Structures are given as C-alpha cells and as structure tokens.
Design the sequence.
C-alpha cells in the first residue's frame, strides 16, 4: 500500500461525521419495515394528538 | 354590526378569519386583506423545491373560499394603521393598497372595530448582500419561502443535476443549504430541504457527484431556534444535537454552525463564525433562508403623527401582551411570552402568527468576537401560528358578545409544535424525521431538567413520519379550503 493510500484510509477517524451515532443495520431495517412502521404510525399519531390536545386551552 | 379586519391570509390570518366568519359572520362583517390571491401551504413548498410537487398542489385561490363563506376579500397590502381614527372621525381605520381585483395601486381606508395583524414576515433578503431567491430579489442564491421561489429553486436544481450527469468521475458540485444571516429563523425548512435535495440526487443517480454542506446560525445542530430539545433515545435523555448530527452523518452531509452569512457572490458564500474568524465556502447551488422582519406597517395617531415605535417593535413586529423588559438570558421566564396577543395600548388590536413581537429569543443570545449577533430568532410558524390564530378568533368572538377582555390564551410556553421533515413522494420509498416539542418555549420552572415535558417531546426517523407528512399536507389543504368538517381538523 502506498503512503498516499494509507493517508486516505486514515482520514475516516476524526472527520466531522465520525463521532455522531450512526444507525445499525437493525435500526435501518425497522425504519422501513412496513409492519413495524404501521405500529409506529399509530403511536406517533397518538403522541401528536396529545401534543395538540395539550396545546389548546 | 361590527367589522373585524384581518390583515394577512397565511396560516394565522386564514385561521382567524375563517373561524370568525363561521362563529359571528352572520351578525358581523369579516374583512380579509392580503396581497396574495392564493393561499399557500408553505411546509409543502419544500417538495415544490425539488420538483416532487407542482405549485398548484400547494396553493388555491382565496377569493372563492371567502366568497362562499360570506367574508369580504380584498387583495391588497396594508400600508398603515390609525388606531385612534383621523381628523374627521374617532373610528380607527387601516389604509390598504390594492394589488389585484382590477384595482392595482388604488388606496382605501377601511374602518374597523377589531383588527388582527397577521401579515407574516417580510423576507429580508436585503440584509445580506447577494442573498436572494434568484429571479428578481437577489442575484445568487435560491429560496423556498414562497411557492414561486420554490418553483424557481427546482428549476435551478434540475439544471445542476443535468450538469452533474456529465461530470467526470471524481469531480463534485458543492451544494450549500441553510441560513443566509446570523439572525435567521426557520432552520427547520432548510433542514428539510437539504434532505430532500439529497434524496433527489440519489434518485437522479448523481449523489456521488455532490458535496452537501449545511450552514446555519445555530450554536449547534438541532437548535432549530428553540435552544434545542432533549429526546428519549435508548434510555437516555439525549440532546437534539446528537439526534440531528446522526442524521447528517448517516447521509454524508457536512455542516457548518455558529455562522453569520456576511455576503454571497456568484460562487462563494462569505461567513463569520462565533470565534470572530472569517471564512468562505464555494457553491454551485445554494438555498439560504433570509432573515425575517415585520412587513413595514406604519402607525399614526389621531393628529397624523407617526407612532410606529409605540405600536411596533424595532424589528417591525407588533407589540402584544408580552413582557418586553430587557433581561439577561438566565432571567428569561416562560411568563415573558404573550398569552392573548392583544396590543397593550389599543385593546381592539391583536397580532397573530409571525406578526407578533416576541419578548426575546428562545435560543441563548450569542455574539461573535467582533460583536456580530449570531443566533437563531424564535420560530412561530405552522402549528403555533394556527393555534394563535384560532385563540385570537375565540377572544374576539367573545368580546363581540360582550366580554371586556380576551377570553382565550395560547402562550408559546404552554403549547407544543410538531415538525415532520420528509423526503421522497412514494408511499414506500420515503423516510422522515418526525419530531414534537412541548412546550416550544422551554419552561425551566415547570420542567427544571430540560425545560420540556419529556412525555410530549420526542423524535424518530422512519417511514411512519413520511406517511404522517403526506396526510398532514392533504388534511391542511382540505381544512384551509373550508370543506365539510374542516373545523374538526385541529390546528
């Protein structure tokens, strides 16, 4: 491996996007799993309705 | 019969006018004054800006809706308010200048018993040299603030995508999206746009030929002009910085924060950061949100003397029942925020939506080492605007029926907001970040740890949010058209 190539590989660490958390393959799967997302759809809607109800006086 | 004049027909003004017409329209006259002939569901302009929707899908003609309801519609812009009347009468009036209906340029004085200022913002592109929406307001950058701006933004984006298709391997175009000034709000719109652009590049097969860069005046990602929030993630109350950075990192987007855009030229954005350093970033396509200001309404007393400074704050927004006493950040309280949106000097005047003057920022005020203010200003679009609009309508209805004071309240420190940033149009190929925050203005007396009710503050990424975003689009377009059952749809 040349010197240039090894530098390119090593820039992955300490780059801006190295430190934030990234989703695992399991998380990504559930994000697009239709059955799971149907339940999330119901759950998020209920939460949003609670926010709406709490916001109207 | 009393007359209520509503200035503006955006989310706040349209909500106020339609509810007032429904509740008291048979006994009283509701007059709507707006310079635009069309209503625009602004959150969906993001989709227009990437070609996923046509302008006609996010707009409709206002006059037929008001005519059907029985309200009076005047396509005109408000110029000035005389809350004490004039030399000939004590009756307060507003002066308007027509922008349509075959009366372009004509002026008219409309007397009122109640006035609701819901004029929204002036898009202050002039605050940053070179900033603009590209077609007639500025030279270089594009905007998604109106459906026309968004349509133009998409035209420019499609030209860029065509250029990218023929780029040699290894070469990239720079796309910079964010805020065009150190005092901008509406980071959420830019946030949603950058991810829609990223999605459009993926669909076009040119994602590898673009460097996407976010630039904003936020202290850190996820501030959104609300000082950020905390979300329950994996058993921890996690700052929105982590949540937002994760979304950026996952998609390979770069970010620049704590930035005041100083100047934009044909290919370069110059910006100053909180440390006082000056930087520049090259771009091939850029959408930068402009700062907002009041629309420039004037106010005159009975003698015709200018009293604009009495009625409006220096930024042009109308003073309401907020506590405007200057205080350091550590002493800000939820109680500083207005509850009734009634003007303190003229009790028959209200301001709703963006048009009211906030008592202070929500995010902590910051200045660069050179003294340049770099911090987001308070967001008051969408759900808060709708709730405030309805609250003002309820109070005016009761005051018309004899109440001495406003009867309903809607403090932004006691209401939540929902934000769904969604990409893609297909039912199964989109994704979204769905977030809610409660309350919008953190209340550290009530919620000492984070300022927010953590049961009502959450965020997650997934297909479900994408479905919700689509439903919200159709639901609010339906509601705004006042079709059967429209009052059942919450703001």
Sequence:
């Amino acid at each position: 491996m040349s010197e240039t190539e090894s530098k390119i590989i090593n820039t992955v660490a300490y780059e801006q996007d190295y430190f934030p958390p990234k989703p695992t393959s399991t998380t990504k799967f559930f994000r697009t799993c239709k059955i799971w997302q149907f339940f999330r759809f119901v759950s998020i809607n209920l939460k949003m309705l609670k926010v709406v109800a709490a916001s109207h006086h | 019969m009393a007359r209520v004049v509503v200035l503006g027909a955006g989310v706040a003004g349209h909500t106020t006018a339609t509810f007032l017409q429904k509740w008291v329209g048979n006994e009283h006259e509701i007059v709507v004054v707006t310079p635009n002939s069309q209503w625009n569901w602004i959150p969906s302009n993001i989709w227009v800006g990437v070609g996923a929707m046509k302008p006609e899908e996010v707009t409709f003609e206002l006059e037929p809706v008001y005519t059907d309801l029985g309200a009076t519609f005047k396509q005109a812009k408000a110029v000035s308010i005389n809350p004490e009347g004039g030399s000939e009468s004590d009756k307060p009036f507003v002066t308007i200048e027509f922008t349509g209906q075959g009366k372009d340029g004509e002026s008219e004085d409309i007397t009122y018993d109640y006035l609701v200022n819901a004029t929204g913002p002036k898009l202050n592109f002039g605050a940053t040299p070179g900033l603009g929406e590209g077609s007639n307001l500025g030279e270089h950058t594009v905007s998604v603030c109106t459906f026309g701006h968004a349509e133009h933004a998409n035209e420019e984006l499609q030209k860029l995508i065509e250029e990218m298709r023929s780029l040699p391997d290894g070469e990239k175009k720079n796309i910079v999206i964010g805020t065009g000034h150190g005092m901008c709000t509406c980071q959420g719109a830019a946030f949603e746009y950058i991810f829609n652009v990223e999605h459009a590049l993926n669909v076009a097969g040119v994602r590898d030929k673009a460097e996407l860069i976010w630039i904003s005046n936020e202290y850190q990602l996820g501030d959104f002009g609300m000082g950020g929030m905390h979300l329950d993630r994996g058993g921890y109350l996690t700052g929105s910085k982590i949540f937002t950075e994760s979304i950026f990192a996952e998609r390979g987007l770069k970010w620049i924060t704590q930035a005041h855009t100083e100047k934009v030229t044909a290919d370069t954005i110059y910006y100053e950061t909180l440390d006082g350093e000056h930087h520049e970033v090259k771009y091939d396509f850029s959408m930068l949100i402009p700062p907002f200001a009041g629309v420039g309404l004037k106010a005159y007393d009975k003698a015709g003397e200018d009293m604009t400074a009495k009625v409006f704050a220096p930024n042009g927004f109308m003073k309401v029942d907020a506590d405007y006493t200057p205080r350091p950040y550590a002493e800000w309280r939820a109680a500083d925020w207005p509850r009734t949106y009634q003007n303190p000097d003229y009790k028959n005047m209200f301001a709703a939506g963006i048009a009211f003057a906030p008592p202070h920022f929500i995010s902590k005020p910051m200045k660069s080492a050179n003294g340049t203010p770099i911090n987001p200003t308070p967001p008051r679009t969408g759900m808060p605007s709708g709730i405030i609009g309805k609250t003002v309508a309820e109070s005016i209805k009761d005051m018309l029926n004899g109440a001495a004071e406003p009867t309903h309240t809607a403090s932004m420190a006691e209401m939540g907001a929902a934000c769904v940033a969604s990409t893609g149009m297909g039912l199964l190929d989109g994704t979204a970040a769905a977030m809610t925050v409660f309350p919008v203005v953190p209340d550290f007396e009530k919620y000492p740890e984070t300022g927010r009710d953590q049961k009502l503050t959450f965020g997650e990424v997934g297909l479900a949010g994408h479905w919700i975003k689509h439903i919200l689009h159709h639901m609010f377009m339906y509601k705004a058209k006042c079709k059967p059952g429209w009052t059942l749809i919450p703001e």
In short: Chain A touches chain B through 29 residues (CB under 8 Å).
